Amino acid sequence: MDFGAGFLAGGLVVSMAWGMFWLAIGLIGWNRGTCEWHIVTRGLIGGCVPCVLLIGFLWWYLGTGGDGLWFASGFIGIPCLLVLLSFRPMPDGKTAGSHLIEGIRSLRADLLGAQQRCGGCRSDHDHETCR
Fold first, then answer.
1. Can you tell me the distance from the alpha carbon of 22 to that of 24, in angstroms, rounded to the nearest whole number?
2. 106 in a structural domain
3. pLDDT tens sequence across 14-58
4. Does 74 reside within a domain?
């Protein structure tokens, strides 16, 4: 029971961190004018919903008086599982983790409006002067 509770809490923490990461990317992109509010609200929801669930779950769990060692070992379960799955080979020979990192970089570049031609300037910049 305690291991499962820790496993659930660890998953909620990973989900909350992922949502907050995209909230930060969305806020930067919105501030630069390269993405719209729906990206920011999705990041906010993706970070706040797991946070509220985690707070409620921990409030309930702390009232049960469970064993901290088993909870802690379950808590690191989801992050360890994700690390192990990131080493899984994909059909093109790369690992799943490298595909995830490439996807994150691509989405981040799209949302933040980074340009490839002149080192990250804004999209309204005249690229002829960069050469």
1. 5
2. yes
3. 999 999 988 998 888 888 888 788 888 998 999 999 999 999 998
4. yes
Domain assignment present for 129: no
Residue 16's nearest CA partner among 91, 87, 109, 79 is 79
CB 39 within 8 A of CB 29: yes
Question: Could you count the other beta carbons within 10 Å of the beta carbon of residue 79?
Answer: 14
| Domain span at 97 | 2-119
What global pTM score does this model have? 0.73
What one-letter code names the amino acid at 90?
Answer: M
Q: How far apart are CA 46 and CA 35, in angstroms?
A: 17
Mean pLDDT computed over every residue of the chain: 83
Q: Residue 95's beta-bridge partner residues?
A: 89
Domain count, the chain: 1
Any idea which residue has 């002149």 for tokens?
A: 118
Secondary structure class of 89 (helix, strand, coil):
strand
77-86 vs 2-32: helix crossing angle, rounded to 10: 60
First to last CA, the chain: 62
Asked if residue 131 is part of any domain, the answer here is: no
